[in-house]
Design goal:
Chain B: InterPro entries: FAD-dep_OxRdtase_2_FAD-bd (IPR003953), FAD/NAD-bd_sf (IPR036188), Fum_R/Succ_DH_flav-like_C_sf (IPR037099), Fum_Rdtase/Succ_DH_flav-like_C (IPR015939), SdhA/FrdA/AprA (IPR030664), Succ_DH/fumarate_Rdtase_cat_sf (IPR027477). The complex is a heterodimer. By secondary structure, chain A is of the alpha+beta class. Chain A is built from ten helices and seven strands. Chain A folds into two domains: about 100 residues, Beta-grasp domain (Ubiquitin-like (UB roll), Roll), CATH 3.10.20; about 140 residues, Fumarate Reductase Iron-sulfur Protein, Chain B, domain 2 (Orthogonal Bundle). Chain A has a five-stranded mixed sheet with strand order 2-1-5-3-4. In chain A, strands 6-7 form a two-stranded antiparallel ribbon. The longest helix of chain A has 18 residues. By secondary structure, chain B is α/β, with parallel strands linked by helices. In chain B, helix 1 runs parallel beside helix 11, helix 3 crosses helix 11 and helix 13 packs antiparallel against helix 14. Chain B is globular, with a radius of gyration of 24 Å. The chains are: A alpha+beta, B alpha/beta.
Chain lengths: ~260, ~650
């Protein structure tokens, strides 16, 4: 069942690089990451690749395979024909460190700016939440932080200049997750738009399409979040309520 | 001279899985300047692979549960080889640690009355595992990660610097612990991205590096599991406890070959999944050992009733502790009743009241994993599964209360530490172990520093030796390919020190390891073509350095396995199939001896500390007699026992082939 496959793998560092051709053995049931490992073991011991669990649970081995952002460990070789040349390049939105490894520190910086979970006065062990109420945020907490959504989002993929003002789908979803957390007390609606660029998103759903966890990022996180932001600003009932002094407006939580 | 960065911390935590993050959080909460060093990116640790849940006797689902019951289950699972004090602390503190996670934002699945839901698992008497579908480990790691970010945000607000008191050194590997005299004074590391060296000056180091699975060919473990902490501890003069106990998880994927070993969670069995052989028989009923006879169902009907009415029925034998199930599967395959790809069948088809939809809801990751990797729809077809190297019960010998190792300033928590799980770990006890003992190690390290009269300093000679060792693979021009040597080491361990062991094979293994040791010392790599010094993100070089660690732990496992002449938990000797009450009293302790440039593992027998009377009192006399020698039993029981069996060897009825 094995055959020799043709691969083009991007080799180089942040300065320069090129696609290098390899011919490499492929066996039944293998995934692209297996082939990259075989290249390391037999032809290119210094081929840099970031990986960890090889089971689609850690989100380390993100790359672009024939131009599609994917996890290498979850891309089966059987999805390609035997005579197809398979091109593997690093994810494009982040700077290359070497070969297939990129510098994803952008994401860790964004993560730090979002105000953390705020439990209020509830003591540990005293939370009571219903399953249907936790499920909304649970969907977003399936995120394995592979950053494929960040990579594919055109707001930063083709526009380096937007990076300071845009947290990307992963972290806008993190804001949505905290906003929908039944026990969270903070209000991040103001900063979602003001500091983290929710308005940049024009719901092309590219993030949802590439999510290996099949999280409905756009439909379940970003669009409802946009509605909440708008609701906070323009809800006529709330506006009237505050004018009449019946509704007390909550405090906006600043970015951290 | 090679350029070396230096950074000073109070506590350096090596490893960023559940135990490492929890230890770091605690050290930071104690006001200590803390570094977390991780071989991977922040949030990618092996803990994300944990699926089933975290065991904690909260009693949310069955109010009869409490720490005493959990303690008993843990000791039974470990066949009484556990450090009873660790098992006690673990059972008592696990609920607080889970509630604390929730307070940091974790979202566990819920019961109807809004509490944290708890699920059944092998060896646990009551539903006890707090869980989030089958991705509980991810929830734990993400919550701890986000708590660290929250602490960094506090520091940012106070000092204007997120990393003022807590910094994560991602993709950084420690190759040596540094010592000032007999005490720890820091750690030597390289940054994977650049290959640059870093010296961490710190009076205390917490090891939280996880396990050793990558020394075996078929394993559920990720590349990081190269026994780093075990080896670093040995090299620093600390000791390892009971390294012969290696858990082979009964259900790993067996096909396709490239995913062989990847875990199939025990929750599949907790959620009504059953094991069948090629004849369609639920064979686990044939493998209930004597010590567990009273706790497990004898008919399929009773086992099936248990899921809905656990108070009036006994549990199905698919939920026996992992060592029992793994051996049973091994026996079935050997007897020619295996599945086409050399495993057995595990099926949930038609087993859940809610049909296919319920399977997808309860086991989403498994459904996804089999669909994506094996093209198997688990709602329609059975899974093929077989044993895979999963966890090492053995590890750094520590003080149960503080996690302190034998070397002053060195602490260990989580899988890298030994004792807690005895000879076999129960599913679900690992995640709670990480939290309970991660916190205790962070606290222990902080208290150690507070009591320290003066900070140690790092001797230059220690750094020079570490640099030379790290650069050595580049100097060997005709060095062997590290990948080839690694593959052979894995094959050797798999074939000769695997799930079933024999004296002759273990001797053969030790001989083979002796030869491999020479080859490990002669692996070589060439610098990468780009970058300044050719060490930037160089996987071949990384593996060359990791091989030293895998070599040392392999030697420790093989030697301890040869020494222990009984079968117990994660150590099965074909030539000594019985469990021996005399051997139960013996801890096997590994240390390094001989020429420091090429040390070898030395074994010592060390008596087990007798269990406290009040803890002994939690067990029925008849059960104690199965495990303990006559003189270990409480005084009144001992007299009675003398009159009967004498409490010597217990027939474990391994396999019953």
């Amino acid at each position: 069942m094995s055959y020799e496959a043709k691969f083009k793998v991007w080799r180089g560092d942040d300065g320069a690089g090129e696609l290098t051709d390899y011919t490499v053995e492929v066996n039944e049931g293998e995934v692209v990451l297996d082939i990259i490992h075989r290249l390391q073991a037999t032809q290119a011991p210094d081929l840099a690749v970031r990986w960890n669990c090889k089971a689609g649970k850690c989100g380390s081995c993100s790359a672009e395979i024939n131009g599609m952002p994917r996890l290498m460990c979850m891309t089966r070789m059987s999805t390609f024909t035997e005579d197809e040349t398979i091109t593997v390049t690093p994810i494009r939105t982040f700077p290359v460190i070497r070969d297939l490894v990129t510098d994803v520190s952008f994401n860790y910086e964004k993560a730090r700016q979002i105000p953390s979970f705020d439990p209020g006065d509830v003591k540990p062990g005293e939370f009571r939440m219903q399953q249907e109420d936790v499920e909304r945020s649970q969907e977003f907490r399936k995120c394995i932080e592979c950053y494929l959504c960040q990579n594919v989002c055109h707001v930063i993929r083709d526009h380096e200049e937007n990076k300071p003002e845009f947290a990307g789908p992963r972290f806008l979803m993190r804001i949505a997750e905290l906003e929908m957390h039944p026990a969270d007390q903070a209000d991040r609606r103001e900063i979602a738009a003001k500091d983290h660029g929710l308005g940049f998103c024009n719901i092309t759903k590219c993030c949802t399409e590439v999510c290996p966890e099949h999280i409905k990022i756009t439909d379940n996180a970003l669009i409802p979040m946009k509605e909440r932001v708008v609701g906070r600003k323009y809800d006529p009932v709330v506006w009237l309520g505050t004018k009449l002094g019946i509704v007390k407006k909550g405090q906006d939580t600043p970015s951290a | 001279m090679t350029e070396i960065e230096r950074h000073a911390y109070d506590v350096v935590v090596i490893g960023a899985g559940g135990a490492g993050l929890r230890a770091a959080i605690e050290a930071r909460l104690q006001g200590k300047k803390t570094a977390i060093i991780s071989k991977s990116l922040f949030g990618k640790a092996h803990t994300v692979m944990a699926e089933g849940g975290a065991a904690a006797a909260m009693g949310n689902v069955n109010p009869n549960d409490n720490w005493q019951v959990h303690f008993r289950d843990t000791m039974r699972g470990g066949k009484f080889m556990n450090s009873w004090r660790m098992a006690e602390l673990h059972a008592k503190e696990a609920p607080e640690r889970i509630w604390e996670l929730e307070h940091w934002g974790a979202l566990f699945d819920r019961t109807k009355d809004g509490k944290i839901s708890q699920r059944n698992f092998g060896g646990h008497e009551y539903p006890r595992l707090a869980h989030v579908g089958d991705r509980t480990g991810l929830e734990l790691i993400r919550t701890a990660q986000q708590k660290i970010v929250a602490l960094q945000q506090e520091d940012h607000a106070e000092h204007g610097d997120y990393e003022a008191r807590l910094k994560v050194w991602a993709e950084t590997t420690v190759t040596r612990l540094l010592k000032d005299g007999d005490r720890i004074c820091g750690a030597f590391a390289y940054v994977r991205e650049t290959g640059k060296f870093v010296v961490f000056e710190a009076p205390s180091v917490v090891l939280a590096t996880g396990g050793i699975g990558k020394a075996f060919k078929v394993t559920s473990n990720s590349w990081e599991y190269t026994g780093d902490g075990h080896a670093l501890a040995l090299l620093a003069g600390a000791t390892l406890l009971n390294m012969e106990f290696v858990q082979f998880h009964p259900t790993g994927m067996v096909w396709p070959p490239s995913v062989k070993g990847i875990l199939v969670t025990e929750s599949v069995r907790g959620d009504r999944g059953v094991l069948k052989n090629s004849e369609g028989r639920r064979f686990m009923f044939d493998y209930v050992p004597e010590v567990f006879k009273n706790q497990y169902a004898t008919t399929e009907e009773e086992g099936d009733r248990w899921y809905d009415d656990p108070d009036n029925n006994k549990r199905p034998p698919e939920l026996l502790p992992r060592d029992e199930v793994a051996r049973a599967i091994n026996s079935e395959v050997k007897a020619g009743r295996g599945s086409p790809h050399g495993g057995v069948f595990l099926t949930v088809v038609d087993r859940m009241p809610g049909g296919a939809a319920e399977i997808v809801r309860r086991l989403p990751s498994m459904h996804h994993q089999f669909k994506e990797l094996a093209d198997v729809d688990i709602t329609k077809e059975p899974m093929e599964v077989g044993p895979t190297c999963h966890y090492v019960m053995g590890g750094v010998e520590v003080d149960p209360d503080t996690g302190a190792a034998k070397v002053p300033g060195l602490f260990a928590a989580g899988e890298v530490s030994g004792g807690m799980h005895g000879s076999n770990r129960l599913g679900g006890n690992s995640l709670s172990d990480l939290l309970v003992f991660g916190r205790r190690a962070g606290l222990g390290a902080s208290e150690y520093i507070d009591a320290l009269p003066e900070r140690p300093s790092v001797p230059e000679s220690e750094i020079e030796a570490a640099v030379a060792e790290a650069l050595a693979p580049f100097e060997r021009e005709d060095g062997e390919n590290p990948y080839a040597v690694h593959a052979e080491l894995q094959q050797t361990m798999n074939d000769l020190v695997g799930i079933i062991r024999k004296e002759a094979e273990l001797q053969q293994a030790i001989e083979a390891l002796g030869k491999l040791r020479e080859r490990v010392a002669h692996v070589g790599v060439t610098p990468v073509a780009v970058g300044d010094d050719g060490r930037g993100y160089h996987p071949g070089w990384h593996l060359s350095l990791d091989l030293r660690n895998m070599m040392l732990v392999s030697e420790a496992v093989a030697k301890a396995a040869l020494e222990r002449q009984e079968s117990r938990g994660g150590h099965t000797r074909d030539d000594y199939p019985q469990m021996s009450a005399e051997w139960r009293k013996v801890n096997l302790v590994c240390s390094l001896a001989g020429d420091p440039s090429s040390p070898h593992v030395e074994l010592k027998r060390q008596p087990m500390t007798p269990m406290r009377e009040d803890l002994l009192g939690l067990f029925e006399t008849d059960e104690l007699k199965k495990y303990l020698t006559a003189e270990e039993l409480p005084a009144d029981v001992a007299a009675e026992a003398d009159a009967t069996a004498g409490g010597a060897a217990v027939d474990d009825e391994e396999g019953e082939q």
